[in-house]
Design a protein that fits this description.
Keywords: TPR repeat. InterPro entries: TPR-like_helical_dom_sf, TPR_domain_protein, TPR_rpt. By secondary structure, this protein is mostly helical. The protein has two domains: 135 residues, Alpha Horseshoe (Serine Threonine Protein Phosphatase 5, Tetratricopeptide repeat); 64 residues. The protein is 66% helix and 5% strand. Strands 1-2 form a two-stranded antiparallel sheet. A two-stranded antiparallel sheet has the order 3-4. Helix 6 runs antiparallel to helix 7. The longest helix has 41 residues. The protein is elongated, with a radius of gyration of 27 Å. It starts with 21 loop residues before the first helix and ends with a strand.
């Protein structure tokens, strides 16, 4: 690819440009339409090959091939990148690489958040108003703006509205997959923070209200199991922390002929606080 065909970073030489803007500039830069289509085609070719490798249980090779697909995909195509990241997360789950699965799923969710934000901005600027939540579905009216009664203009806006709805559903579908994969990986990783994170993800999934029956059953089962797992992990980690603090305290008190055993802590059930007494 020649230098002249690289996406234009129009604001980089602007006096107001700062280092903090660099990431957004590279994200917002656009390839010419023809070159974008060519890059996306190459990315999809590698994606299809990776899908075949995944189906053949060749998960490590699939990850490498999904990475190749990412290398061709323009950085501003958030939805397409999110799909690839979510697929990589699925590969890590199969390999029982729980941390890799969490990282890839999180990267997918972050991209989907951007894609949804951009989708909302496009709807706002397109001149199409959707009905508020106060109306019943049967009474919904789509208000078309700036068309001046032109049938072709109205048809184009309706087509765009339908496409936007399809894209939103696609985003929600991949978001649910990525969230499910991250929740499972966090649960497998264990530990207080990870288990709490898994619980939050599963609650978010349940809040969607449109999970397939099998997925909803799995999520509800996980949410029944997690509170006890979280309590056990919390008690274990707090106990380990207190043990380390005790060792540290003993090291400090030893020159004075004292130890932490000389200090007794009693919990006040009403306030949740502790009182301390000294015993020789």
């Amino acid at each position: 690819m020649s230098k002249s065909n690289k996406p234009e970073l129009a604001t980089q030489n602007d006096p107001s440009f700062s280092d903090s803007d660099e990431g957004e500039i590279f994200h917002d830069a656009r390839y010419p339409a023809e070159e974008e289509a060519d890059l996306l085609n190459k990315s999809n070719t590698h994606k299809s090959a990776a899908n075949e490798l995944f189906s053949s249980a060749r998960y490590s090779e699939a990850i490498t091939t999904y990475d190749r697909a990412l290398s061709f995909c323009p950085n501003y195509l958030d939805y397409e990148i999110a799909v690839l990241r979510s697929n990589i997360s699925a590969c890590h789950l199969k390999l029982e690489d729980w941390k890799g699965a969490v990282d890839a799923a999180t990267a997918s969710i972050e991209r989907l958040d951007k894609a949804l934000s951009e989708q909302t901005q496009q709807e706002t600027s397109s001149g199409v108003k959707k009905p508020g939540n106060g109306k019943d579905a049967g009474d919904e009216v789509v208000e078309l703006l700036d068309g001046d009664g032109d049938e072709e203009s109205e048809e184009a806006q309706l087509k765009k509205l339908r496409e936007d709805d399809v894209r939103k559903e696609d985003i929600k579908r991949i978001w649910a997959k990525a969230l499910m994969r991250r929740a499972r990986a966090k649960k497998e990783l264990g530990g207080w923070a990870n288990l709490q994170g898994a619980e939050e993800d599963y609650k978010a999934l349940l809040g969607m209200g449109n999970l397939p029956a099998q997925d909803e059953k799995f999520v509800r089962k996980a949410l029944r199991e997690l509170p006890d797992l979280i309590n056990v992990a919390r008690e274990k980690e707090v106990g380990e922390m207190m043990g380390k603090l005790k060792d540290l305290g003993n090291g400090i008190l030893k020159p004075f002929g004292l130890s932490t055993d000389n200090f007794k802590f009693v919990k006040d059930d009403k306030s949740g606080g502790y009182s301390m007494s000294f015993e020789k």
